[in-house]
Amino acid sequence: MDNAKLILEGKEFQLPVKVGTEGEVGIDISTLRSKTGAITLDSGYGNTGSCESTITFIDGEKGILQYRGYPIEELALKSSFTEVSYLLIFGHLPKKEELEKFNYDLTHHSLLREDMKKFYEGYPPTAHPMGVLCSMVVSLSAYYPDSPDELYRNIIRLLAKLKTIAAFSYKKSIGQPYIYPRNDLSFTGDLLHMMFAVPSEEYKVSKTVEDALDLLLILHADHEQNCSTSTVRMVGSSEANLFATIAAGICALWGKLHGGANQHVIEMLEMIQKDGGDYRKYVERAKDKNSEFRLMGFGHRVYKNFDPRATILKKTADTVLDELGIHDPLLDIAKNLEKVALEDSYFIERKLYPNVDFYSGIIYRAMGIPTEMFTVMFALGRLPGWIAQWKEMRDDPNMRIYRPRQIYTGCTKRSYTPVEER
Ligand code: SDX
Questions:
Q1: Measured from the CB, is residue 285 less than 6 Å from ligand 1?
Q2: N or C: fewer beta carbons within 10 Å in the chain?
Q3: Burial grade of 255 (CB within 10 A; 0-12, 13-18, 19 or more)
Q4: Does the beta carbon of 281 lie inside 6 Å of ligand 1?
Q5: Any idea what DSSP says for residue 205?
Q6: Mutate to test the pocket of ligand 1, among 56, 254, 257, 268 (most ligand atoms within 8 A of CB)
């Protein structure tokens, strides 16, 4: 493709164009400032590519999501979360012996250092688990050195220990004893066991719940340059250690416009239910510019069509609730809300569709996972994506520290005035 031409103050500049393997077109402005003295402005980075990446492809108009070229629908149906984690991080589907070793390593690194349990003692039971998760992850750096020959082990430690940290934070919040990881359970089965087992009785992991949670983790595993992944790349570009970098991603994910939305979707549905179930009223409120209220779980910066993950999760919600014999009125409210919104011109014009967070909370609820743990589940799923993106950036020989520019619109130069004269 020919260069892009820019005319600025009567002068014409050529800018190279990069075309991706899926036909995406990017104007390379890396020499713009040196050539023209000007920079670009793009609030929220909606039109700015921060990197080239080979990990995840999203076509927002067509509702396509692929991890390393594999459609999410196929991986959801045929793969497992640990296999998808391997695919994202190392770039290929593992051979049998590779997957067996990966799973073995994940199983045998899931214990926390015993003295890390003391960290939990300082938290009130009401502490939000995302805050606990973030501080526990950055504290892993106190135990594990950040060095090239520790890279594989530290990736394994993070993937293996984050679920233990999450389960321990849940047990702390309900005042129950910690349940230690078990080597005879699957990755997801062990997470469920650590969360829901109690010392006094045998806890049998339900296959339905284990499979549904594994699917949820796969669907959340990566999503190209979203807010938390861009945060991971930003912090990682300063060469902060992997644990500090992932802790930053956890903080970004916590926000209600991002990963925190799944918790806010359920709180919204509960509010509608308490208010007599009048979902139409809330659709109208979401359209009202004077109201702060937004339809949580709706809309997306990239998807201007159905989020393929939401489509899968809507079906999964029905299956899981049926298999568990649960009727959750919030699912009916969610489905009615979706139907009304998708027929409303306000949502149609703005191409607002349900996103990954709209139905995920219904399924977590059915599994007995408390609302405050929903974003923690999102973080557990997104961890391999963060690691893969961080590794891709660190392996890039041209990697530079992220340092955007700005256009200054503040006061021009002025002299200091002593306080008596102000
Ligand atoms: C995730 O980026 C990723 O990939 C994220 C994610 C991932 O896997 O990492 O997919 C996960 O974060 C999903 C999104 C979860 N967040 C929510 O569900 C919160 C509710 N959604 C919105 O806040 C919003 O849609 C965002 C934050 C998701 C996207 O915001 P944008 O792209 O900045 O869009 P915008 O705010 O500029 O909205 C465009 C218009 C505006 O109206 P106008 O000013 O044009 O009149 O659409 C309206 C908005 O008011 N709008 C909504 C709305 N979302 C957008 N109106 C009502 N309800 C909503 N949910």
A1: no
A2: C
A3: middle
A4: no
A5: P
A6: 257
